[in-house]
Design a protein that fits this description.
The protein is mostly helical. Helix content is about 75%, strand content about 0%.
């Protein structure tokens, strides 16, 4: 039960952080700053930002990143050894983020929001 509460609290806190510091900055008028997640998806999956509702795109990234971070925190909290926690964190960060952003890239490719289509 404690792990579920930890997951939910972490998800809420990280999502609020993304809303305040990432999405508000990226959606301001004349803002040329893009979050690194957007740059990764544009580069890797050729997503055309002009075809995407940018605010919804940023919200999806915030939800996915919040879920990923919450999942990693929950996985790390299951271990008792500090060294094992570090190893779990390093491995799971890479794997979970790559899988989740791959799924987001596939989703936008299926919607037809890629360049030269």
């Amino acid at each position: 039960m404690e792990e579920i509460i930890l997951f939910i609290m972490t998800f809420i806190l990280v999502y609020i952080f993304y809303q305040i510091f990432i999405i508000k900055v990226a959606t301001r008028r004349n803002s040329k700053k893009k979050p690194p997640e957007v740059n990764y998806l544009v580069y890797k999956y050729d997503i055309d930002i002009k075809k995407v509702n940018y605010k919804n795109f940023l919200n999806l990234i915030a939800v996915v990143s919040s879920f990923d971070i919450s999942l990693i925190v929950s996985l790390v909290s299951l271990s008792d050894s500090f060294l094992i926690e570090i190893l779990i964190a390093i491995v799971s960060v890479i794997i979970i983020f790559l899988i989740s952003y791959h799924l987001v890239g596939i989703y936008y490719k299926k919607k037809g929001c890629i360049k030269n289509v």
